[in-house]
Amino acid sequence: MSEPASRDDGAQYHGRIAISMSNALGDTLVLMTIAYNLHQAGVDVTVFGSQAHALRQWFPRIAIYPLPHGTDARAAFAPYDVVLQMHRHQPLAHLRDVHPNVRDLDDVIFGDRPGCMAERFADFCRDSLGLREVVTGNGITPPATLRHRIHQRRVAIHPEASTEDKRWLAARFIRLARQLSKRGYEVHFVIAPHERERWRALERAGIAMPEFDSVDALASWLYESGWFIGNDSGVGHLASNLRVPTISLFRRRGVSERWRPAWGTVRVVLPWQWVPTAGLKERFWRQTLTCSRVMAAFRSIVRDDSASSVDGALTR
């Protein structure tokens, strides 16, 4: 058993911890914040999850295994004193039936707390797990064979999201791609195989849609890309996590404050706020989030990136 992690007021956490990871990519990345903080504090922590296992080479410090199911779950979690799961009933709906000490994080996610999800999970590590020093990072480590942002003119656009209400208008994504292409950028749309049927217009517009056989391959490609633009989605979290300058489109400010990507340089772009009532804002956000707002954010992030590159060169 590992040494207990402790904090200044004397509270301690003892034991081995397993984390049942979400099947969602973005949730997995923010939940890895907890795994990383526990590992850094010397706690014996093991991660179980499909997306995490697909990205296991990017997290070499953490033991990561596929998510067990059915009768396998009881045996897999038996050696651990506590099992953490982000949501009460997913990804394993009956986790409490196979382990006596399960802690879900619904109160952290939906409670009246400040900060985005990675910040909330870091606070949870300090306040509930008793870790003295916490960070919002998750320890992601790119393979040494890759070169960060080597394709400086490549812009990755992810126009999809987990639900329809998070997706900006397809026609505006295509218009944005054309505007970027006119400025000399190489625009590529990141589209999953099951989503490609909705995006046949990209082929007619001559816009590239690279194919990836795994999330690991996608991560490698994103890491070497120059920029990322997309809806509130797991791919946006991945780009941010890889320190690729990221523009993230959100339908509401409150949602963005909770679910925005937490790492690197991120610009959140919101619709115009003059629309009255929350209901109308929700209904018409796609129309009131204009291409000009997204392009303005892109120009701003490019300027800031150029300035930081010059500053870094002058101080080396």
Report on this structure.
This protein is an alpha/beta fold. The chain folds into two domains: 5-127, Rossmann fold, CATH 3.40.50; 151-315, Glycogen Phosphorylase B (Rossmann fold). It has helices spanning 25-40, 50-54, 71-77, 95-98, 106-110, 117-127, 170-182, 200-205, 215-223, 234-241, 253-259, 278-288, 291-315, and strands spanning 5-6, 12-13, 17-20, 45-48, 63-65, 82-85, 102-104, 151-158, 186-189, 225-231, 246-249, 266-269. Strands 5-4-3-6-7 form a five-stranded parallel sheet. A five-stranded parallel sheet has the order 9-8-10-11-12, with helices on both faces. Strand 10 (225-231), helix 10 (234-241) and strand 11 form a beta-alpha-beta unit. Helix 1 (25-40) packs parallel to helix 6 (117-127) and helix 1 packs across helix 10 (234-241). The longest helix is centred in the C-terminal third of the chain and has 25 residues, at 291-315. The protein is globular. The termini are far apart. Mean pLDDT is 90; it is low at 1-12.
